[in-house]
Amino acid sequence: MPFLHGFRRIIYEYQPLVDEILRVLGIEEGAGAQGSAPAVDSAPCGSLEELLEMESQSSFFQEGVSYSLFKVAETGLVSAAETLLRYQADLNFEDPVSYYNPLHIAVLRNQPAMVAALVRHGADINKRDRIHESSPLDLASEERERLPCLRTLLELGADVNAADKNGKTALLHALASSDGVTVHNTDNIQLLLGGAGADVEAVTRDGETALSSLVFLVKEALDCSREDAAQIGNFCLGATRLLLAHGADPSRCSDEEPPLTCACLELFDLHFPLAVLLLQSGAGFRCSQHSPPCWWGYSLIFQRLCSGLRDRRDDGAAASELLQQAESILQLAAAASPAVRLPPGFEVSTEGCGAHAEKVLDLYRHLQELEQNPAPLKQLCRAHIRHRLLPGPLEGKVQALPLPDRLRGYLLIEHRHGNEAGACFKPPRDSATSI
User: Fold this and answer.
1) Distance of CA 286 to CAs 142, 195, 263, 279, 294, Å?
2) Domain spanning 1-123: CATH 1.25.40
3) Within 336-427, where are the H helices?
4) Residues of the chain with CATH 1.25.40
5) Spatial contact of 204 and 226, defined as CB atoms under 8 Å apart
6) What percentage of residues in the chain have a pLDDT greater than 90?
7) 126: Cβ–Cβ under 8 A, 6 or more apart, which residues?
8) What is the pLDDT of residues 273-292, one digit of tens each?
9) In its UniProt record, which GO terms are filed under biological process (predicted)?
10) Closest CA to 397 of 282, 270, 239
């Protein structure tokens, strides 16, 4: 049983043996906490074996060597760990404070060689801790610095789609841990999706999905500085490309959040590059789950366009850019489908649009004409080719086609508005006016 010492630390009966083992190995308390492996795995295992032989008949010997294994796993000293395992150290020993086992702590401290050694000696690669029910793969997915451990676990056969008590998989852990500013887990996400086959449609008990994590960041960017918003936008672009390439549907509604496409179109001027990426990748321009659709892209675009023009009535340049962005979005939406379908009874109010009212009506009338008349053959061909190239971003696939540059440009619908470097996301206060 443990007893209190100085009201700060719990001391166990086996602690003296642990302290002596660590002293022989030259490990100081807290070693490995920064997540870096030792330069050379040169622990004095001969002295360690002498100590273990001498203490092998002592009380609490197995507990002492097992806890020592936990401490050694933290530092990455593989030879010392193997010595302790020969003396019956328990691979499943749980730290009495964190309830992590040696494999968990090796992952947390980014010790891939130790991870491989522990699994080779029989550690349960999918073992979950008792508090958070996190598996080693979950922990490895949560930080980019742990990518070596993530790769090692996947190579050794960790279950990439196993879920914790809340239904969260390693992919969802990687996305939920990414704030787009200080934590960017794009490489982890790519590894989980590309080589391991993570399920992009995984859903937690609370309805959280891979894309809903990006919806949260899209909204979070609205309250950030320009610099942070740009970083979040760049992360969202990278993560979205990966998810779309593996079949994620950004236009599907959930009970908790609007879909990613809807969230971007509602404020298309602030999230313009991501909105373009979604449409270039074949995202639906209306709800793909409900009938009749619970949201329409045409309604969202014209609502934002009209409200934005009212806010920019004293800034002609900003108003012109907004019109150009809206035109690009509408052009992409029309190109993705063989026929334009407007919402039933859809009308556009230009009240407050001032001098730009006629331009807004021109956009609306053009869509009406497209809806009422049969699509030309070239439009049908474009929509068919784009559909055949799905899923995922189309740019690379179109560029690989043996076609003239002009036809590639026609397939991709080139645009030049609001996509300059550093302008991925713009918080409202950084645009002409707030929402």
Assistant:
1) 33, 32, 12, 11, 8
2) yes
3) 357-372, 377-388, 395-399, 405-412
4) 1-123
5) no
6) 67
7) 135, 136, 137, 158, 159, 162
8) 999 999 989 899 988 888 78
9) intracellular signal transduction
10) 282
